């Protein structure tokens, strides 16, 4: 029964598209959600603390849904490259709407997607995750400085877990 309803919805959707498009054209504006600076800062701090608990000195960058920096934190012994690397990871996760570890595997193993590695500014190295709220990407987080990309990503996941109750609405 659910499958039939889903199939029917997919078939009907194109019929509704012209009505939706004209209603959107009348308003000339779009609305979207973005992280409040306080939440972005809490996310970055929780991520930094998760890395510190594991003994990693990292940089953490939180970007808005457009990929622009909202928060940049670099721990005292994190390398000079970590800020730009974390920024690129966060930007990549927002731009491609996926985690950078997953994207690294996809672009490295599937020739169809290998060309994505040529996108200026993109970095397909684990440690970047999109930030989602109510099914919408509202930002991204990037971490750089742990001994391996999967560890950067684990820190980002810990940060997201720490604020997840504030994103579920």
Describe the overall structure:
The structure is a single chain. With 169 residues, this protein is α+β, with helices and mostly antiparallel strands. The protein has one domain: Beta-Lactamase (2-Layer Sandwich), CATH 3.30.450. The protein has a 4-stranded antiparallel β-sheet. It is globular, with a radius of gyration of 18 Å.
Write the layout of secondary structure elements.
Layout: H1 2-27, H2 37-53, E1 59-64, E2 69-74, H3 82-96, H4 100-109, E3 128-133, E4 136-144, H5 149-167
Provide tags for this entry.
169 residues; alpha+beta; Beta-Lactamase; four-stranded antiparallel sheet; 5 helices; 16% strand; globular; disordered N terminus
Q: In the residues, how many domains can be counted?
A: 1
Q: Which segments are poorly predicted (pLDDT under 50) over 5 or more consecutive residues?
A: 1-17
CATH architecture: 2-Layer Sandwich
Mean pLDDT: 87
**CATH-defined superfamily:** Haem-degrading domain
Give the gist of this structure:
The chain is an alpha+beta fold and 169 residues long. Helix content is 51%, strand content 16%. It starts with a helix and ends with a helix.
